[in-house]
Amino acid sequence: MATDAGVGERVLLGHYVNPKLWRASNRTFWRLVAALPNEVARRYGYAEDERTRLERELETARVTGNWKQVAELAARLDGRTDPEGQKAG
Q1: Ramachandran region of residue 80, left (φ > 0), alpha (ψ -120 to 50) or beta?
Q2: CA torsion 19→22→28→33, rounded to 10°?
Q3: Which class for 73: exposed (0-12), middle (13-18), buried (19 or more C-beta within 10 A)?
């Protein structure tokens, strides 16, 4: 795996053993996935369902403090169209 990534084994292991570097590596991965159109990501072996995508967006919104988006995404995950508690259709 390290060879495919073009880095040494020590660098690769360091990113997965050190929690701070591991989180940074995961953030980089999610930024790359978010930038790809779904069909391209699927071609490279990554398939994400709608719920997983919404949950990931919710976590990103929470970490960045975007509380309006947190409320909107939580409502969508709960099957509501708005964060005020009104159920969809």
Answers
A1: beta
A2: -120
A3: buried
**In the structure, what pLDDT confidence band is assigned to residue 67 with cuts at 50, 70 and 90?**
very high
Q: Which of 4, 26, 6 is nearest to 15 (CA)?
A: 26
Helix 19-35 to helix 9-17 angle (10° resolution) is 100
pTM: 0.49
Residue with tokens 């072996």: 45
Return the number of other C-beta atoms located less than 10 Å from residue 58's C-beta.
Answer: 19
